[in-house]
Amino acid sequence: MAQVYLASASPRRAELLTQLGVSYELVLPNIPEQRLGSEDPEQYVRRLALAKARAGEALTAGDKPVLGSDTIVVMGENVLEKPLDFNDACRIWRQLSAKKHQVMTAVALVHGDLEQVVCVITEVEFAHLSESDMQQYWDSGEPQDKAGAYGIQGLGGQFVVAINGSYSAVVGLPLHQTKALIKQFIQ
Ligand SMILES: Cc1cn([C@H]2C[C@H](O)[C@@H](COP(=O)(O)OP(=O)(O)OP(=O)(O)O)O2)c(=O)[nH]c1=O
To answer: Ligand 1, atom 16: nearest CA belongs to which residue?
Structure first.
């Protein structure tokens, strides 16, 4: 029997859980990703992770903990989410180009009355992106489903000059912190 439910459609999160040696069963809740006016980026990413875990739990028999997670790319107070189209991706990349930004990943575990959320913040420094870099990267098909319109684990890795924090958190789940959280719920 699986140890947790994973409330995520992200193949990267599933791979990272497998890397941790945690077995899972998928549940797929549908949570709208819309920041409230009063929320700062960290409150927003924490709320979404918890909402995914809680909504996931409502789809289960409540027999094991549910893990939900969310990743956002933050530039100052701006949250850069998944690109809507090529123009939107260019708008995002122009903000990231030749600067440092933060990637915030929140992980929530929920089981009945027990709820825990952790948020891991990683600083990522981007290289300058030329117009042709942007066109070629878009054409690769990689940025479309990714927060901040890049994937550090794929072609997008070529734009990353430096990283300070957790590489796995940027990809989708901070390995160390996720394992520590799961240990609190499973003996
Ligand atoms: C910055 C960055 C993001 N991403 C991904 C991680 C997340 O899957 C995605 C951010 O979107 P999320 O909304 O966090 O996750 P998701 O929609 O893929 O899956 P679900 O909500 O069902 O759990 O962007 C990378 O894969 N690499 C990166 O370098």
So the answer is: 10
Mutation probe of ligand 1 site: the residue of 71, 74, 75, 101 with most atoms within 8 A of C-beta:
71
Fill in the DSSP letter of residue 168. H
What CATH number is associated with residue 132? 3.90.950.10
Return the percentage of the chain with pLDDT > 70, whole number: 100
In which domain, by residue range, is 90 found?
4-185
pTM recorded for the entire structure: 0.95
> Is 0.90 exceeded by the ipTM?
yes
DSSP string over 39-89: --HHHHHHHHHHHHHHHHHTTS-SSS-EEEEEEEEEETTEEE-S-SSHHHH
pLDDT in tens, 67-78: 999 999 999 989
Structural domains in the chain (count)? 1
